[in-house]
Amino acid sequence: MYKIPTGFPEGFLWGGATAANQLEGGYNEDGKGLSTSDMMTAGTHTVARRITPELLENENYPSHEAVDFYHRYAEDIALFGEMGFKVFRLSIAWSRIFPNGDDAEPNEEGLKFYDRIFAELKKHNIEPLVTISHYEAPFGLTQKYNGWSDRRLVDFYVNYCETLFKRYKGVVKYWLTFNEINILTMPMGTFLAGAMLPEGGLELTNPNASTEQARYQALHHQFVASAKAVKLGHSIDPDFKIGCMIAYLCSYPLTSNPVDVLLAQQKDNLSNFLCGDVQVRGEYPGFAKRYFAEKGIDLHIEEGDEQILREGTVDYYTFSYYSSVCVSADPEQEKIGGNMSMGLKNPYLKASAWEWQIDPQGLRWALNNIYNRYRIPMMVVENGLGAVDEVQPDGSIHDDYRIEYLREHIKTMKEAVIDGVDLIGYTPWGCIDLVSAGTGEMKKRYGFIHVDKDNEGKGTLNRSRKDSFYWYKQVIASNGETLEERGE
């Protein structure tokens, strides 16, 4: 008889995930330069965020203060420790280390800030999981080189990585090269990925932000940069584990019509597996080459790039999962939102207030679908429910809806482990309330920890524990076995 797992493995990495531009604040302190995220105004669910070519007066730029982790990191990490975190996913702000991106020397004060972060995490026995580039780059690189459209960014990025790898050798084990790198396959990915800024700025949802040619060329440069970083990191410390991070866009055929089934597969390939194949297998897949040919996309691939991609494959695969959508050849079907994408409404699913369909079973599907293709260790490094939380008169926050969402997703993760998936960690998104990347709002909250701040930037920034805080503490303590109880 085969011996199958009965639950999460011993040593499973439970924790939470954040990003510097949505968390830190301190946007101009201690030598930090402006990042692309620092140029993004606030928006709402119905009003798109704008990206300005210069800072404007009387505009709200949410990343400038964010939730002030820059000054409150010790308090926040202590709360993570109280929950029992084994791992904390954070990103490093590139412009805090190299203010302009192409500086000759790093900013020592920026490096010292992360020295303090990692020391605080070690105090609480929390492993750092570091995203090297998470939806931001030094704005100087956008101004001077038009971002990732320019091949020279590869060397600037690798130099940045070398600085981090040497500084934090023996301190950080787990690294991710780019957050949701596949977002560049979509029009809205242009500026989120620090790629290119059309003259005069743009709205985040502008579908004409750049051509496919420009986006896929920028993506190729990021592939080369990632592969070089992986190889460099392994040469500096063979114990480094360096992974990719994909926004998994789960798409089902709306009907059993073979055309719908094929469309779902094609979307899965282009949205998810193009980037996975390059970063895990080390080469562009055939379906991508066909797509480029049919769309007239002619990538400039330098001699030696293919070898670089082969030699710089990742050690593990991580991804975000929030929701699923349907696809159909029928243009009259009702559309609904999702993480960086639009799709068709699934009649079997409920949706969040932001129209993201809630589909725990889709996470089990995604884990099996990915693992059966790549057969390397995996982490779910983003997952969660953005919702409006109501603070009660006594200060309590009863977020049963968040507990239910996470509980059902953890259940399906456990089923995937029993299926044979090598799952090694789980870091729900926004373990502390953050500024929303998509809308710039504060009211779209994900955290176990409430931050007193509103959409206009007003509030004390005081931290408080939600009901989900105590619930997740029990989940971690039981290694995913205690899911129903909540209590303090």
From TrEMBL:
- One Pfam family in the UniProt entry: Glyco_hydro_1
Q: Tell me where on the tree of life, at the top rank, the source sits.
A: Bacteria
PANTHER family to which the protein is assigned, alphabetical: 6-PHOSPHO-BETA-GLUCOSIDASE, GLYCOSYL HYDROLASE
NCBIfam families named among the record's database cross-references? PRK09589.1, PRK09593.1, PRK09852.1
Q: What family is reported?
A: Belongs to the glycosyl hydrolase 1 family.
Task: Output this protein's name.
Answer: Beta-glucosidase
Name the source organism: Saccharibacillus kuerlensis
